[in-house]
Design brief:
Blueprint lengths: L15 H45 L2 E2 L27 H6 L1 E5 L1 H8 L9 E3 L12 E5 L6 E2 H8 L3 E5 L11 H18 L4 E5 L7 E2 L6 H18 L2 E3 L2 H4 L22 H12 L18 E4 L6 H4 L62 E6 L7 E7 L7 E6 L6 E2 L2 E2 L21 H5 L7
């Protein structure tokens, strides 16, 4: 069979002009792909250079500590076993809801940035130190014309317990652990005086990253402060929550990877908050609820910060709008003092202080019907032998806004001859002198007796 003859090839089938166009097309395609390849190669080099530059800038703004010994100030849990909260069953969300969290920026992040608690059970002032706890007025309540201190806020909010997390802003090479603990104790005692029924839990200062943005902070001093805190709690019969033990990397002593913000190495991340709140619920402290009859508390609507933390300021998240009134505030709580930091920057949370530039319009305030003016009269309830005393602030316009503060401990019985001179109650341990038979012999003198001299 004869083979089939093939036709002319592709190239042979083209005339001279077609061949010229074909070669030109191939050259254009080659040039196009060369340009694309060069673009990605150069772009990749630029990206690497930009990343290297960014890393260099970031690295240059961070500091690290030299000579840190993670074992130097390790807390002896056996020595403080009666003070450090031990592991318990998970107390659940109700335990968190009954607790008022007080602290600095890490506490502010709990409810301003993350959803671990709310304005109902947390007060955080960015940049605040423990030494300002007793005096810095930073809490804003609905119906009040001025800020309250945290101790005053505790009396108004009437929580079952408080967990305090302060100390990061106190760290300073010139500020000793003893001075820190002494000043912290002054603030805690102000809380106890304002509301004696509250349980006190002092949380450990969270660890910082091995690299961080503040040269004043060292993990060495932070460990010293935590050691001082657990000793302080033991001396005053307060409880110590050692949450730092689950936030620390056991091999380095610093915060675990991912537990502090990479931008500063100081503030806790959401991952760290997850771990810490799990620790709080599983190291609970639940005592008998001996609070007096609770009253309706005004809404916590804002806080005043000492300084503005960028990561908080970038996410202003007030869940409640301020309700400013011209109500003359009660004066029964004597612990209020002028703010300790007069130059403090207000937080992003809305405040009632009019600082805006005057507008040509008559007023920018009343956009709705104005709040009623609230006035109060005070009733002082004296303590009894067994019951607390307090000041009851009666609202003339709205009884639901009544509240109590300035609690005074019970006086205790004053027994004289088996009877309390204050309330007439009988001493159950009192034994009348006439119930014993007088001794009449030397034998009786030597006989054993149950009486205590």
């Amino acid at each position: 069979m004869a083979k089939k003859k093939n036709g002319p090839g592709f190239w042979a089938g083209l005339d001279q002009r077609e061949r010229m166009y074909f070669v030109l097309a191939l050259c254009c395609a080659a040039l196009f792909f060369t340009v694309i390849a060069a673009f990605f190669i150069v772009r990749g080099d630029l990206s690497a250079a930009e990343k290297e530059e960014t890393d260099s800038v970031s690295s240059s703004s961070m500091v690290s500590e030299s000579g840190y010994n993670k074992d130097e100030n390790t807390i002896n849990t056996e020595e403080y076993s009666s003070t450090i909260l031990a592991q318990t069953d998970d107390a659940g969300q109700s335990y968190i809801d009954e607790t008022l969290f007080l602290g600095d920026s890490n506490t502010a992040r709990m409810y301003r940035m993350f959803d671990y608690c709310s304005y109902d059970n947390a007060i955080g002032s960015v940049g605040m130190s423990a030494r300002s706890l007793a005096s810095y007025a930073c809490v804003q309540f609905s119906g009040y014309s001025s800020y309250k201190t945290m101790p005053q806020a505790v009396a108004i909010m009437q929580p079952r317990r408080v967990i305090l997390t302060f100390g990061t802003n106190d760290l300073d090479p010139s500020y000793s652990a003893a001075s820190f603990a002494e000043n912290y104790a002054e603030g805690i005692r102000a809380i106890v005086q304002a509301y004696p029924s509250v349980d006190i839990i002092v949380n450990s200062i969270p660890p910082i990253g091995q690299k961080h943005s503040n040269s004043r902070l060292t993990q060495t001093q932070l460990d010293e402060y935590n050691q001082a805190l657990v000793e302080l709690c033991q001396e005053n019969d307060w409880k110590f929550l050692n949450s730092a033990e689950v936030l620390k990397d056991s091999s380095t002593g610093y915060a675990k990877n991912g537990y502090v913000e990479s931008s500063d190495g100081i503030h806790l991340t959401s991952a760290a908050m997850d771990v810490m709140f799990d620790y709080i619920r599983t190291h609970s402290y639940i005592t008998e609820d001996d609070r007096p009859t609770l009253t309706s508390a005004p809404a916590h609507i804002g806080d005043k910060d000492v300084s503005v933390m960028p990561s908080v300021a970038a996410t202003p998240e007030p869940t409640r709008e301020p309700e400013p009134t011209e109500e003359p505030e009660p004066t029964a709580t004597p612990t209020a003092t002028p703010t300790a930091t007069p130059t403090a920057t207000l937080s992003p949370t809305p405040t009632a202080t009019p600082t805006a530039t005057p507008s040509p319009t008559p007023t920018a305030e009343p956009t709705a019907s104005p709040e009623p003016v609230l006035t109060y009269w005070d009733e002082v309830i004296a303590p009894t032998c067994t019951e607390q005393g307090y000041t009851l602030h009666h609202c003339n316009e709205d009884p639901s806004k009544d509240y109590r503060d300035s609690y005074v401990n019970p006086t205790g019985h004053n027994y004289v001859n088996g009877v309390c001179t204050n309330c007439g109650a009988e001493d159950p341990n009192y034994k009348n002198a006439g119930d014993t038979t007088p001794d009449s012999s030397a034998e009786a003198d030597s006989a054993p007796t149950d009486e205590i001299s």
